[in-house]
Write a structure and sequence with these properties.
Order of helices and strands: HHHHEEEEHEEEE
Helix content: 25-40%
GO molecular function, one term: thiolester hydrolase activity
CATH class: Alpha Beta
Shape: globular
Strand order of the largest sheet: 1-2-6-7-8-5
Protein name: Thioesterase superfamily protein
InterPro entries: HotDog_dom_sf, Thioestr_dom
CATH superfamily: Hotdog Thioesterase
Strand content: 35-45%
Number of strands: 8
Pfam family, one: 4HBT
CATH architecture: Roll
C-alpha cells in the first residue's frame, strides 16, 4: 500500500498552475503560490489579451511615512513579479523564468494608493525574453516607474 503524503498531494508543477489559472481566468490561484505576491497583496486581472497587475493600497508597503509613499523596493518587486507572471501566462512556461537583469527608473513618488502595472514582451528568443514594465497610479500617462527586464526561460 502506497501512502500519499500531504506535501506530495499538494505539489503542483508550474505548467499545471499556469494552465489552471488561464482556464479559470483567475490568476489569484497562480499568485497564491508566490509568497512575496501574497505579502504585498498583488492582484491581476485579464482584459482580453492583456494582463493588468494591481498593488492595492496597504500600510505595510509604505517606505516613507512622511509623504506617505510606497517603498521603492516594493514597487520594484511588484514590477518584477508582474513581468514573471506575464511571461508564465503568455508563454505557458514549465518553469518560473529566472531574472538575468532588471533596470528600473523611478519617475515620481508612489503615493499611498493603489498602483497598477502592465508588461510588454518586447523580444522572445528560445532562451531569453525581454520585458518592458510600466507602473502608474491614477493615470497611465503619469508613470511612477518604468523598468526593463531580461529573463532566462526554459
Amino acid at each position: 500500500m502506497t501512502m500519499v503524503t500531504p506535501e506530495a498531494n499538494q505539489a503542483l508543477n508550474v505548467k499545471d498552475i499556469v494552465k489552471k489559472a488561464t482556464e479559470l481566468n483567475d490568476f489569484g490561484h497562480l499568485l497564491a503560490h508566490v509568497p512575496y505576491a501574497k505579502f504585498i497583496g498583488m492582484q491581476v486581472a485579464r482584459f482580453g489579451d492583456e494582463l493588468v497587475f494591481q498593488l492595492p493600497k496597504k500600510d505595510e508597503n509604505i517606505g516613507n511615512p512622511t509623504l506617505p509613499a510606497i517603498h521603492g523596493g516594493v514597487i520594484a518587486g511588484f514590477m518584477e513579479m508582474s513581468a514573471i507572471v506575464q511571461l508564465m501566462v503568455f508563454m505557458q512556461t514549465t518553469k518560473v523564468p529566472k531574472i538575468v537583469d532588471f533596470s528600473i527608473d523611478y519617475l515620481r513618488a508612489g503615493h499611498h494608493r493603489d498602483s497598477f502595472a502592465e508588461c510588454k514582451i518586447t523580444r522572445q528568443g528560445r532562451r531569453v525574453a525581454n520585458v518592458n514594465i510600466n507602473c502608474w497610479q491614477t493615470n497611465r500617462k503619469a508613470l511612477i516607474a518604468t523598468a526593463r527586464a531580461h529573463f532566462l526561460i526554459e
